[in-house]
Amino acid sequence: MAARVYILFSQSIDKFYIGATTLDVNQRVYRHNTKYYDNKYTSQVNDWTIFLEIECPSMTTARHIESHIKRMKSKKYIKNLKMYPEMAEKLLLKYS
After folding, report:
1. Under a CB-based contact definition with an 8 Å cutoff, are residues 55 and 22 in contact?
2. Pairing mode, if any, of strands 3-10 and 48-56?
3. CATH (residue range 3-95)
4. Helix segments in the chain, DSSP class H
5. Nearest to 53 by CA among 1, 95, 92, 12
6. Domain spans, the chain
7. In percent, how much of the chain has pLDDT > 70?
8. What's the predicted TM-score (pTM) here?
9. Alpha-carbon torsion (48, 49, 53, 59), positive or negative
10. DSSP state, 45?
């Protein structure tokens, strides 16, 4: 089953959110912005936008990549993922 790692950005709090899903990413953004995930990190604001998507061959791969990005704890790393697509390609090779 195909999956995606998605990174959302909120302008109002200047923060990123990293998630993984098999659902349509636009549907996930809608859910995050309408407090579908009440009492979760993303429910504090409603201006989340898609910053980056990484298509993965499986949910297992997506979860590994999601964890890797979260462990980096770096806005610079996330911005570089978007600026240098080869970084995402290397992650896919590493975790597939």
Report:
1. no
2. antiparallel
3. 3.40.1440
4. 25-33, 59-72, 75-83, 85-95
5. 92
6. 3-95
7. 99
8. 0.94
9. positive
10. -
